[in-house]
Amino acid sequence: MKWNFPTAEQLAAALRAGEVTSAELTDEAIARIERDNDAINAICVPDFDRARAAARDADRARARGEDRPLLGIPVTVKDSYDIAGLPTTWGMPPHRDYMPAEDAVQVSRLKAAGAVVLGKTNVPLGLQDIQSFNEIYGTTNNPWDHSRTSGGSSGGSAAALACGFGALSIGSDIAGSLRTPAHFCGIYAHKPTLGLAASRGMVPPPGPALPVEQDLAVVGPMARTARDLTLLLDVMAGPDPLTFGVAYHLTLPPARHERLRDFRVLVLDEHPLIPTGSAVRAGVGRVADALVDGGARVERDSPLLPDLTEAAMLYRQLLFSGSVARFPVEAYEQLRTRAAQLSANDQSLDAAMLRGMVCSHRDWIEANSRRELHRHGWRQLFAEFDAVVCPITPTPAFPHDHNPDPRERRIDIDGVEYPYFDQLVWAGLATMPGLPATAVPAGRSPEGLPVGVQLIGPMFEDRTPLRLAELLEQKIGGFQAPK
């Protein structure tokens, strides 16, 4: 099986050169899934018959002289995207049989680019966890250690890529759902600038799939190399043809620099609200050392950096203000009662979450105004720096924890326990202001687990962190297949 781990770029070159056919690539990918997926459980809905048919169509198209960006390349798709003829469940048992009538806009773009869709990848219930498990499809394991999580909510996609189940995948991110699984599984992912890629058809069942972009949430590419991220982002990026796409066409600016020594980078490894574990701190250090060795200008602090505590609290409020929209009235009233009992002096992350769940529209408008001040602060920072390097979560992949009450779960950071959802503060750093962030491998923990970091870039300058990711890959290496 020599074709399971080459990059999408390498596969495209081999297809153009006639060294392999799409039918052969697809058969090898399916054989590997059938061999290894039982242990990992990354692919939750296989679509092998249609994949083989699409591969044959791709080979015929190439024989006619066609050459599209992903023509004949096997890929996977996160379960949360609508694919006509396949169930879209979001891991929610009441919707196990829901079948959308049409493809999500990003699935349509994949197919138009010539990709061969192998099937759908597993997610947590409602996409609302840092792990990927649900009652319908079970638990997705980390390919490096089956006792640990692959991350969430795009954990199935990350595990699939690490195992060679296709060359590319598409996921989504509102709380690190692209970046955390990439960090845990040792692959690459890119959270685009908010609004850069249309998300119609990435909607909880039963829909409807309206052309509405949700606050904070994005869809984005996952791959085994930085260059493949750029290849897939170019397919995904652009407004919805039903709304802004009627009038607008996308032109992303080029990367600010092509050489490592020209980059100006701010490196962070400490957060005021949660410690950074030693393994992740070492990963950030490896990247910082590579930047210095490559001649980049590296700083460890800057007065231009927006306040991290305020940013985390604001992110928490905005994130959870939308999470209760479908709660029953009784449950919502219970939250209001609990929030009213909070002390005014309680400025914990849990308190911010609870207040966010019951905030009024007036409160939300005020929070959004503060977000705009943070965005302005980031614009000022990115006049001085080109990228920010920082953790994605404080630890590598943690052991499976399926306690039904997430409030009782804990995250172990170098032997000290912290509230489970406190680990989201680093993901929120880019999400709250809507900045692009690229997750890149940064070595291994002492236990041999992958460790990643994120490269945050200026708004709508997605090619800048992607280019930096490519240069770092050349400097310190990138994806390595699990043993």
Automatic annotation (TrEMBL):
It holds the Pfam family Amidase. One of its GO terms (molecular function) is amidase activity. The keyword Hydrolase applies. InterPro entries: Amidase_CS, Amidase_dom, AS_sf, FAAH2. Residues 24-464 form the Amidase domain. The keyword Transmembrane does not apply. Keywords: Hydrolase. Its EC number is 3.5.1.13, 3.5.1.4. One of its GO terms (cellular component) is endomembrane system. PANTHER family: FATTY-ACID AMIDE HYDROLASE, FATTY-ACID AMIDE HYDROLASE 2. NCBIfam families: PRK06170.1 (NF004816). This is Amidase.
